[in-house]
Specification:
about 20% strand, nine-stranded mixed sheet, 3 domains, about 35% helix, Rossmann fold, alpha/beta
Length: about 750
């Protein structure tokens, strides 16, 4: 039977060959002129090239394994003593993941104004959660009743106007009318605390409020801190302030928040023992390693993603469980699925609630945990507000307050401002979050091991290698490569092979191996690593033509998540995922898993060395590496870890990780971040660790991706490595306006 496709293919071929005057032999044969014929449909190769599935499937396998390990640990907890031990462990681990409990420094509180609304008053407050980190807050105080009053700590969700958002104000007004003191404050990046201001305005330069958290949250990964530290610490210091007020009953402290505030209620409940009851509304309750996991899963803002928690068998559900046996109400809406949170939000929330019921039951406090399921869209709606009033009234002996709400007391947002200009950065000239991050990172980063006296480059190199391997969380064993040649193509002077190998089981790495058709039986080889496709090795003209002409082979690979292995989108939740940067979401998911993306890509490169060692036509004593742009970081790390790299050329690579921490406008994607690297060393230390092998640094860039002069690069490097040391002298820093082909040849000939 002749199919429509076969007819069209054959007919098109006939027209083409007729026009060219070519004779086409039967299927499966080769014409006299060397042209291969078309292959019938039933003989087409089916190589299963869906490389975009490999990495997601690999991540899902590891997530499910992490999920099973955590659930098995929880299942073994059957007594009050075991729950107490688990609570202490989770709290300790959480503080460590976030960067450690900060020092209690002077609050320096001051009231900058008062709004009198008869039934209650609002004090406009400023305090310092850390030195010169100013927190703008509103304190709602009942005008009637007998103090001390039950008091509510109220973290906010992601609203640009922070504490002035109507849906939150209405809640606080009503609580104050019902006899509660309420403290709410602007989170970093919101309200009066915007950190990335448009010049000459009070507005953020970002369209999405969450970017005010994401932008400073990413660099914190580099020095082993989490953005939730800052948000939670503001709340803890706010509670410290409340303890100084005579209106506050220290034995009746509650906490409630919605959306991001609901998530922060989880963190505060886990970290702060002075909170006695909580209502968490529409927070990110779902475990990252949740049910029916599909990468990247339930990943959100930096403060919700607990870096490195899954190797500790800890997930978001443990934040809720740590609050037991104190009264806890979990509120969610079924209309969060596929919009604010992932498509399995309901299943994930109920799963965690079931675990809460079991824990509260063991503690004899089953009546102190509740679940409220709403039907309206994401927001602090009428029904959520009533749930708040009812829960706190019940547990703080305030049942006479009821659930009713008076009319909303309207007013301009600016009326609630505690500063004169509406922004702390312009009014008080304190430290910005970028300065705060830089100050913390600078204190954490130790001196380079190459600055120790007496100098011992070999000892410094081994120290960096050991630390780097741990930071990257590399696999403990090498599995079979299962290398395959997918195609062989004979060009004019070169043989081009399309290669795949398995870096880890099921993770196929694609690349091109190009070698001269003539010459020595064993070739020196250039291993080329870029952050995109490996096709540069086979384009015409190629930047490697000179190297090939001198008898070198070239092997170019695309590490996982790049090129043809860019991961597929998740199967569900298009409304949730379509507006997200999936590369970033995959990076966060892997950080929570304890497997940074860059570490996985370094492993891909190390396995490329293994593949080259398996080829009889490669001289493994002469392997040189080129790392381009962001991928240069992974190439450099692989070369530090593997002596088979005889030299390395790094083109357009980031000059230092610390430059990202200092920058307000960095461009490096999260997948190339190494968690905690600045607790040990920086990029120049890695370059020095290759000594005595030569390192060429060509056209290095700053955090924004702009080229630096040789003098600027030298300054960055000399801050870490003594300029007169042998390790520094092995590093060649240069720039070139034509930075590719002629530099490649100079490097090959002189290294």
């Amino acid at each position: 039977m002749v199919t429509r496709r076969k007819f069209l293919t054959t007919h098109a071929a006939a027209v083409a060959t007729s026009a060219l005057g070519l004779h086409v032999p039967a299927f499966g044969a080769v014409a006299d002129n060397g042209l291969e014929t078309l292959v019938p449909d039933d003989q087409l190769p089916r190589p299963h090239r869906e490389f975009w599935n490999d990495w997601p499937n690999h991540i899902a396998l590891q997530m499910n394994q992490a999920r099973d390990r955590r659930r098995a640990l929880l299942a073994r907890i059957q007594s009050k003593e075991q729950i107490a031990d688990r609570t202490a462990t989770v709290r300790s681990q959480l503080w460590k993941i976030l960067g450690g409990r900060p020092e209690n420094t002077p609050l320096n509180p001051r009231i900058t104004g008062v709004i009198d609304r008869k039934a209650y008053r609002i004090e406009k407050l400023i305090f310092e959660s850390m030195p010169k980190i100013y927190v703008t807050a509103n304190l709602y105080i009942p005008a009637t009743g007998k103090p001390p009053f039950p008091t509510i700590l109220a973290p906010l969700g992601h609203t640009a106007n922070g504490k002035a958002a109507l849906r939150y104000q209405y809640t606080f007004q009503t609580l104050a009318r019902k006899g509660y003191v309420v403290l709410t404050w602007d989170p970093l990046g919101q309200g009066e605390r915007i950190q990335y201001l448009q010049q000459g305005t009070n507005h953020s330069r970002f369209h999405r409020v969450s970017m005010e958290h994401t932008m400073p949250g990413r660099p914190m990964v580099l020095f082993g801190n989490g953005f939730a530290l800052y948000l939670a610490w503001d709340g803890i210091r706010g509670l410290d302030y409340l303890m100084t007020r005579p209106e506050v009953d220290p034995h009746r402290i509650g906490c409630t928040g919605q959306s991001g505030g609901g998530t922060m209620t989880m963190f505060l409940g886990a970290l702060e023992p002075r909170i006695h009851a909580a209502v968490a509304i529409e927070g990110n309750f779902a475990n990252v390693a949740g049910p029916f996991y599909d990468p990247p899963g339930s990943i959100s803002d930096p403060e919700t993603d607990i870096i490195g928690s899954l190797p500790l068998r800890m997930d978001r559900g443990d934040l809720l469980a740590t609050f037991a046996p104190k009264p806890l109400l979990v509120c969610f809406t079924k209309n969060d699925e596929g919009e604010t949170y992932g498509p399995l939000n309901t299943e994930a929330t109920i799963e965690n609630y079931d675990e809460l019921v079991r824990i509260y039951g063991i503690l004899g406090a089953r009546d102190k945990v509740g679940l409220f399921a709403g039907n309206l869209p994401h927001g602090m709606d009428f029904f959520s507000r009533r749930a708040i009033y009812g829960w706190f009234n019940r547990w703080f002996d305030n049942m006479d307050a009821g659930l009713e709400e008076a009319e909303y007391d309207a007013g301009p947002d600016s009326a609630l401002n505690a500063t004169t200009t509406g922004q702390v950065l312009s009014s008080l000239h304190g430290r910005s979050v970028v300065q705060l991050n830089y100050d913390r990172a600078r204190r954490i980063l130790p001196a380079s091991p190459f600055r120790k006296k007496p100098a011992d480059p070999a000892l410094a190199r081994e120290q960096i290698r050991t630390q780097l391997a741990n930071l990257l969380a590399l696999p403990t064993q090498r599995t079979p490569l299962h290398a395959r040649t997918l195609s062989t193509n004979m060009g004019k002077k070169q043989q081009i092979e399309e290669i795949q190998y398995e870096s880890e089981p099921g993770v196929r790495i694609l690349g091109w191996f190009v070698k001269p058709q003539n010459g020595a039986a064993r070739h020196p080889c250039v291993l080329y690593i870029s952050d995109g496709y490996a096709d540069e090795a086979v384009v015409e003209p190629s930047p490697f033509d000179g190297a090939l002409g001198q008898g070198n082979a070239v092997y170019a690979i695309s590490t996982r998540g790049t090129g043809l292995s860019v991961p597929r989108p998740p199967k569900g939740g298009p409304n949730f995922y379509e507006q997200m940067d999936l590369h970033e979401r995959f990076a966060w998911a892997n950080l929570v898993l304890g497997k940074p993306v860059i570490g996985q890509r370094v492993w891909d490169i190390l396995r490329a060395f293994d593949y080259l060692a398996s080829r009889p036509d490669v001289d493994t004593s002469k392997i040189q590496v080129i790392g381009q742009e962001a991928a240069g970081l992974a190439a450099l790390m692989a070369a530090v870890l593997d002596e088979r790299a005889q030299s390395i050329l790094l083109t357009r690579m980031l000059v230092t990780y610390m430059s990202i921490v200092q920058s307000t406008d960095y461009s490096l994607p999260l997948g190339w971040f190494v968690p905690g690297i600045l607790e040990h060393f920086d990029v120049p230390d890695l370059a020095a660790a290759l000594y005595p092998r030569p390192v060429w640094v060509l056209d290095a860039v700053d955090a924004s991706g702009d080229f630096l002069s040789d003098a600027e690069v030298y300054q960055y490097y000399s801050q870490r490595i003594p300029g007169d040391s042998p390790a520094f002298k092995a590093i060649k820093i240069l720039s070139s306006p034509k930075h590719d082909r002629h530099v490649y040849m100079n490097w090959l000939n002189h290294s």
